[in-house]
Amino acid sequence: MRTFPLRLLGWPIAALILVIASAAPGAAAPLQDCAAMLPWGAPAMANDAAPHTYLCRLAYVVRHNNLRHVPDWVAWPTANAHAAGCLPRSDSFRADPDLPPGAGATPEDYDEPNFDQGHVAGDGFFNYAAEPESQSFLMSNMTPQTAANNRGPYRALEISSREWAAAGHGVWNIAGPIFGARPRTIGRTKVAVPAASWMVVVRGDRAIAVIIPNLMTYRGPHQWQEFIAPIAEIERQAGIRIHLPAGIAHDTVEPAWPVDHGPWTVAHQAACRTVR
Hints:
Blueprint: E1 2-5, E2 16-21, E3 44-45, E4 52-56, E5 61-65, E6 70-78, E7 116-119, H1 130-135, E8 142-145, H2 147-150, H3 153-167, E9 171-178, E10 185-186, E11 191-192, E12 196-203, E13 206-213, H4 231-238, E14 240-241, H5 261-275
C-alpha cells in the first residue's frame, strides 16, 4: 500500500489519499478510511480477483479496473451545502499518477470522434471547492461515453441529483459501467467501451436506479426517466452487490422522483452572481 499526504483544507474526510492494489493482503480494509463516502460499506464485485486499484479522493472513492482502464464504480456523497457550487469548470483532464504503470487511461486515448471523456462522478458535484473539482478530471473517473449519453440522460440525472441534494438532506450516488462480452476498445491503452452506464441515487430511505445504453443515438424519448431499472438488474449486469440502507428493495422499480429545474437553476445562478 502507498500513501500520499493530503491537504484537507477543512474538508471532513480522510487525511490520506490511499492507493490500494488488489494484490495487497487485506486490500479492502483501508477503505475504512473512506468510511464517510461508503456509509453502508464497499460494494462487492463478482470479478474481485481482477487487477484493480482503490482510490480515496477528497470527495469521492473509486474502484478502478486496471485491465479495462476505467472505474468499476465510483461513489460519492453530496451534502446540501455542496449541491450548488459556483466554480467554473476546469477541464483539467489528466492521467491519474496514482495508478500502477499501464493501468490508467490518458486523454490521448480519447482523441477519436465517437466518445467523450465521460465523468462517472460529474464535476458539477464538486465545484464548491477547487481541489475536489480538479480531482474529478482524473482519467480514473472517466469512461468512454457517447455524446448522446454523456450530454443527454446521464447529465440530466446528475443535475437532478444535485437538485434533490439541495432540496433536502443530501444524496449519495454510486455509478459505473456495464460491459458486453467483448467490449470495443479505444486508444493506445485499449480503454474498454461500456455498453451502458448505470447510476444509483440514495435519498433517505429511498433509492432510484438507471441503466442508460451507451448508444450513438436514441430512438424516441431518452430522458433519464426512460431508463429506470431495479437495483438488482444493475447488480446482475455489472457483476456487483451494492450495499444500501435497510429497507431499500433491490428487486423493485422506484418510480421517477419529481424534478423542477427552473426554480433551482434560478436560485443557483443568483447565488453564484453574489459570490462572484
